[in-house]
Amino acid sequence: MPDPSRFNERCYALLKQIPSGRLVTYGDIAQALNCKAYQAVGNAMAANPNPIIVPCHRVVKSNGEVGNYSLGVDKKIALLRAEGIKIEDNSVIDFEAVRFRFTPSI
After folding, report:
1. Which domain holds residue 84?
2. 102 lies in some domain
3. Backbone phi, then psi, for 100, in 5-degree steps?
């Protein structure tokens, strides 16, 4: 059985690559890990022991909705807005323009 803490650490390492003002989806992280474990990525975000240092607030739903956050949705929105992300009705405005793409590993 795979070690979930190892999976979480791999997710957190990817999160640290996302620059301020950019966003990814749960699926983007799963794809970068060469898997389809979107729900496991969400579980890793919820279990993040350092939600500011490891910026899980930069992970949103694939439709651009903000989604949940361990410190509350209002805090997530405030953090994203402080990074220049425009949000209206809990959705990111022009999501694709701020979407970060991981560089494929060779």
Report:
1. 4-97
2. no
3. -90, 140
Tell me whether residue 103 is in a domain.
Answer: no
Residue in 89, 18, 92, 97 with CA at minimum distance from that of residue 61 = 92
What's the total number of domains in the chain? 1
- Whether 10 maps to a domain, the answer reads yes
Residue partners of 54: CB distance under 8 A and separation at least 6: 12, 15, 16, 48
Share of the chain above pLDDT 90, in %: 84
Residue type (1 letter), 47: A
Nearest 5°: CA angle at 45, between 39 and 49? Answer: 145
Distance of CA 45 to the CA centre of its chain: 7
The verdict on residue 104 lying in a domain is no
| pLDDT on residue 67 | 93
Which residues are known catalytic residues? 56
